[in-house]
Amino acid sequence: xxxxxxxxxxxxxxxxxxxxxxxxxxxxxxxxxxxxxxxxxxxxxxxxxxxxxxxxxxxxxxxxxxxxxxxxxxxxxxxxxxxxxxxxxxxxxxxxxxxxxxxxxxxxxxxxxxxxxxxxxxxxxxxxxxxxxxxxxxxxxxxxxxxxxxxxxxxxxxxxxxxxxxxxxxxxxxxxxxxxxxxxxxxxxxxxxxxxxxxxxxxxxxxxxxxxxxxxxxxxxxxxxxxxxxxxxxxxxxxxxxxxxxxxxxxxxxxxxxxxxxxxxxxxxxxxxxxxxxxxxxxxxxxxxxxxxxxxxxxxxxxxxxxxxxxxxxxxxxxxxxxxxxxxxxxxxxxxxxxxxxxxxxxxxxxxxxxxxxxxxxxxxxxxxxxxxxxxxxxxxxxxxxxxxxxxxxxxxxxxxxxxxxxxxxxxxxxxxxxxxxxxxxxxxxxxxxxxxxxxxxxxxxxxxxxxxxx
Length: 455
Prior knowledge:
- It is a single chain.
- By secondary structure, the protein is of the alpha+beta class.
- The chain has four domains: 3-172, Beta-Lactamase; 221-247 and 321-349, CATH 2.40.50.100; 255-315; 353-453, Elongation Factor Tu (Ef-tu), domain 3, CATH 2.40.30.170.
- It is built from ten helices and 20 strands.
- The chain is elongated, with a radius of gyration of 44 Å.
- The model has no long low-confidence stretch (mean pLDDT 85).
- It comes from Imbroritus primus.
- This is HlyD family efflux transporter periplasmic adaptor subunit.
């Protein structure tokens, strides 16, 4: 093909490529069009599109691939080689190829650059920079070729690069200035005023606070536990039911104890009969008098066993020791469940003395003074907080119901709060001593830095 006909073919192809570039909906689509549609002008081994300015540009598109996402050895080598290659092309964009006689590493290149070039790349690379109208760089287009491009193809791609640059600029929008550039754009006087105002703001005293999950509990509550080993037979009350002193709360199964009672009674009767027979025999046989003490002790032992079983039967039904509210989960969770002596089954709480139980996570712990204020925001009434003060704190952190290491804080409400029903949950806001705003904002970052650095 003659040079004139080649120029005519390229001139006919350019409008179509420019139209495709203008149809791109974002920068990624434009990069795909640049890397693949330009093959009609310049047959290349591979085309690479880099986004960004200078040595920090990153590989956006590789011809023939939708997205270069995998970390293959080739892409790793390319990311390591690009900063050096950019330095070679920054002052003289266009054709670059390593010297044919080069057998060792290229000057200033990372280790393995020349070996990777011989393995993956052809003789050289022809690069075009893409810039904004103001001259600010947008990216680079690199074509891997066996020889420098012909003059008609070079001229066509140079013209096409102007369209690519304009479309890229329009799709990318205005460049965002860095924080350093924004700071430098401020007048020196305004900088000093801003720094002074910031320092004064950081020295402003504020009250240290912490948020933690909390619930309403009774300050006068008694644990009702199983009096002996057994199985729960009946729960006589419902959850949160008011009870009077002497009312039954729950009962244990008495089948085993009733059987033991019958056996104990029979044992007492047998022991008494043996003692009576030995007593009557002792009138005629003086040798039988020695057995009277033994049989009498055995009879007393059987009566003691009978009394123990009767005492256990008397404790089968657990009664309320005083007035209160039975606090527990679900009665069905306890029916038929084996329990051991001392295992808590429910709480008998006084509803007239509500308080707040706060689980303060260790990570959010603050220094608290005696009587520190607290506000409880109930989930059922988040706009009506309940005010109170902390009266008790734990020195040891325990796991909260959510499984978080926390300190347990107890508090009382200020005045009478009818809305504080036992069992309600919410979020407590605890107020500590006053500190400067800078410490309040940087306390957690400083603690994290100390954990990370060790000082």
